Amino acid sequence: MAVYWHRRDLRGVDNRGLARAVTVDDGPVVPVFVFDPTVLEHASSIRVACLLEALEGLRAWYRERDADLLVARGESSDAIPRLAAEHEAETVVWCEGYSGLAADRDRATTAALEDDGVSCETVHDAIHHEPGSITPNEGDHYSVFSYFWKKWRDREKRDPVAPPTANDLATVSGEPLPSLTELGFEKPNAGSTTNSDQEPTLQLPTVTQDAARDRLESFCADDIYRYEDERDVPAADATSRLSVHLKWGTIGIREVYAATERARERAETDDQRANVTAFQRQLAWREFYAHVLAFNPETVTENFSGYENEIPWRNDPDELAAWKAGETGFPIVDAGMRQLLAEGWMHNRVRMLVAAFLTKDLLIDWREGYDWFRRTLVDHDTANDVGGWQWAASTGTDAQPYFRVFNPTTQGREYDPDAEYIREYVPELADASADEIHGWQDLEPADRERVAPAYPAPIVDHADRREEAIEAFERARETS
Ligand code: FAD
Q1: Which residue's alpha carbon is nearest to atom 52 within ligand 1?
Q2: CB neighbours of residue 125 within 10 Å
Q3: With CB atoms 3.0 to 4.6 Å apart as the test, which of 91, 152, 396, 465 could cross-link to 284 if both were Cys?
Q4: Domain boundary among 126, 143, 176
Q5: Is 290 in the same domain as 234?
Q6: Which residue of 253, 282, 283, 346 sits with most ligand 1 atoms within 8 Å of its CB, as the best mutation to test the pocket?
Q7: Same structural domain for residues 349 and 441?
Q8: Residue 315: how many CB atoms within 10 A of its CB?
């Protein structure tokens, strides 16, 4: 008998760990999940709400097979050995995590199981190519994505794995899942921090295996063929929105990749095939950042690339609060921050812009932005989030050079020319023209008052702040 420990792989289909558990010992598998207080300490109500939904979905999937998902509460290093003993398991199997937190938890759990004479097996599942398998000639991992991508692209990919049958699973019956409140979280609500008079409602995605597969199927039927052309246009909504599913593991990466390969086979033109490749390239970014984090767990809090001197980050609670609330007076930035509050998700191009705005225009430490994203994103993934923030702050691998500062006005004009996306999320600007929106920084106060009286004036002058940021980064680089 084996125990299978679900963590961020909340699915039965295409789950390499679960498939391994079925074969590891004689007898059926007992699937379990643990609400670990050390992990929950780093969570937020929005993410725990997604977690509970994914767990309910997984439990239903097991029940359709006359089995169940057992849940326990407590430190993993206590709960997993307890569950193993209750079910007289010889082996506990789980899928690897790549953060420092996961590594600490797994070390403690492995030690406790081994003390009890129970074997442990771990399997790589969340990514195609595990850390250490794609390396430069010297070193553990690539720091430049383009080199990583070439090797990743050419490596053979694994096929999806078959799910267990009812006969592979133990006929157990579990307790109900705890509620959000029992876990110490409040019901998530949208815009709890905005100063806006609007009453925003939170629109969270459905986080289940079925929803993930529907999303993958519809994306690969159509949007994937315009991905490269439109992925930077937030109003086009042309990206897959699979991040929340990849975060919680409600879909397996092999299944995603196989669907993209089928889309390539169906493609009729080279342009369509190029769009499929462009999407696969983004999947490779996810693996690149997982490798970087696995070898550099300290980069959750420390700069990846050192500067000679400390970067003189500013401590400005009012500007930070305006950024969080989407009240900076820079329309594209505010639209993104409000999309985050309303949906727990933000378009990638806009994530880049809001992160650049915080770290360059406001010169506020990227860790403040990371912390806010960590609490508000449904798809928060330590590796991708740290990677994205350090890229924007010019402290990461392959980062944006510090002297290339995004101009939020020209970026807004380029990627949201008709201001469609901005108007959707910033209702105060609903009646303003695209020119007025993109020219907001240059409008006279009386014109702003006439066009959109409820919308704030820009909190900073971009040109001045750009100069100041470049000077601050140059000082941080000085050697003497
Ligand atoms: P698609 O464009 O459809 O891409 C498909 C998948 O590829 C994504 O689901 C994701 O798994 C992966 N991917 C795409 N772009 C990137 C990227 N730049 N880096 C790493 N993986 C990528 N992504 C997260 O999954 N979690 C995060 O916490 C996160 N934080 C970010 C913070 C900042 C500051 C920035 C700039 C980016 C961040 N990203 C994060 C990357 C990216 O914004 C999201 O993956 C993407 O917007 C998710 O939407 P999608 O699934 O529609 O993406």
Answers
A1: 241
A2: 27
A3: 152
A4: 126
A5: yes
A6: 282
A7: yes
A8: 10
What is the residue with the minimal CA distance to atom 17 of ligand 1? 285
Name residue 31's beta-bridge partners. Answer: 4
352 CB under 6 A from ligand 1?
yes
* Ligand 1 midpoint to CA 240 (Å): 10
Question: Domain range spanning residue 444?
Answer: 317-477
Give how many domains the chain has, as a whole number.
Answer: 3
Residue 34 CA from chain centroid, whole number: 21
The helix/strand/coil state of 48 is helix
Q: Is the CB of 355 under 6 A from ligand 1?
A: yes
Cα-Cα-Cα-Cα torsion 253, 264, 222, 14, nearest 10 degrees, comes to -20
Choose among 41, 340, 342, 339: nearest CA to 184.
Answer: 41
323 annotated ligand-binding residue: no
pLDDT tens string 383-405: 999 999 999 999 999 878 999 99
Residues 290 and 327 in one domain: no
Q: Are residues 269 and 339 in the same domain?
A: no
Q: Is the CB of 351 under 6 A from ligand 1?
A: yes
The answer to whether ipTM exceeds 0.95 is yes
Q: Where are the beta strands (DSSP E) in 28-150?
A: 29-35, 70-73, 91-95, 119-123
Whether 348 lines ligand 1, by a CB cut-off of 6 Å, is: yes
25 and 110 share one domain: yes
What's the CATH code of the domain at 461?
1.10.579.10
Three-state DSSP at 422 gives helix
> Greatest CA separation found in the chain?
78
Token pair recorded at residue 337: 């921050």
CA of 220 to the centre of ligand 1 (A): 17
Ligand 1, atom 37, lies closest to the CA of: 388
pLDDT digits (tens, 9 = 90+) for 44-85: 999 999 999 999 999 999 999 999 999 999 999 999 999 999
Residue 244 placed within a domain = yes
Q: Does the Cβ of 149 fall within 6 Å of ligand 1?
A: no
- Contact in structure between 67 and 261 (CB atoms under 8 Å): no
Q: Is 166 annotated as a binding residue?
A: no
Residues 472 and 331 in one domain: yes
